[in-house]
Structure formats: C-alpha cells, structure tokens
C-alpha cells in the first residue's frame, strides 16, 4: 500500500567501480524491496523505470513516500509559470503526472529527518 522511495549514489560495484545511483523503494508493511534500478544519476527516467518494475511485480501502490527532490514534485525554489501563478497550484512533474494517472498519492517528507525516522520505524516493523 505504501512504498518509501529514494535514490542513493554510491560505488555499489566496489572501490574500483564507478559511482551509480540505486533508485529503489521499501514496502512499508513488509520491509522488503519490491523493485530497484541502477542509473548513472538520480533522474526522472530512473524513477519511471523503478515505478514500472514495481507495478509489474507487485501492482499499483496507494501511496509513495519520498523526499523533496525536484524530479518527484515541484519545489518552492522553481520559478512558476504564469498559469501556475494564476491558479496558485504548481503543475506536477512528469513523474507526478504518472502518479496522478495511476491514482497514486505522493507523500513528501517535510525533512530528511522525517524520512530517516520513517525508514527506522519500518525496520522495527
């Protein structure tokens, strides 16, 4: 029902390997990783590939819990278009539009500490 998603850049293939970003998610109820992908960078395409793998393997979740990355949802730092200013609502990112189409609720952590706390709660589950 709820999947916590994030990207992590690291030398996953050892000290001689290049840095890769692992984009994955943790099922909040079971603590399992239903899908993950490696990318050179944390990017929209990686989150799309991750979501596709998740949906194909486990079905459509009710919600995805993420940090405040500009790929996932508009940030307050991004300049608003005239249409956004007039409506008072920022347009969703490409990833946000996909979530809307699938009726998946996007929940954003209000701070890195909130997301870290939530992942610790899952590990005690």
What does the model show?
A hairpin with a 7-residue loop joins strand 2 (20-27) and strand 3. The protein contains 4 helices and 5 strands, in the order βββαβααβα. The chain has a 5-stranded mixed sheet, with helices on both faces. The chain starts with a strand and ends with a helix. The relative contact order is 0.18. The protein is an alpha/beta fold and 125 residues long. It has a single domain (2-124), classed as Nucleotidyltransferase, domain 5 (2-Layer Sandwich).
Q: Beta-sheet strand percentage?
A: 15-25%
* CATH structural architecture: 2-Layer Sandwich
Q: What top-tier CATH class fits best?
A: Alpha Beta
Numbering strands along the chain, what is their spatial order in the largest sheet?
A: 3-2-1-4-5
Helix and strand sequence? EEEHEHHEH
What's the story with the biggest beta sheet?
5 strands, mixed
Number of domains: 1
**What Rg do the Cα atoms give?**
15 Å
- CATH fold-level assignment: Nucleotidyltransferase, domain 5
* Fourth-level CATH superfamily: Ribonuclease H-like superfamily/Ribonuclease H
Task: Give the uncertain stretches in residue-range form.
Answer: 120-125
Which word captures the global form?
A: globular
Number of helices: 4
Number of strands: 5
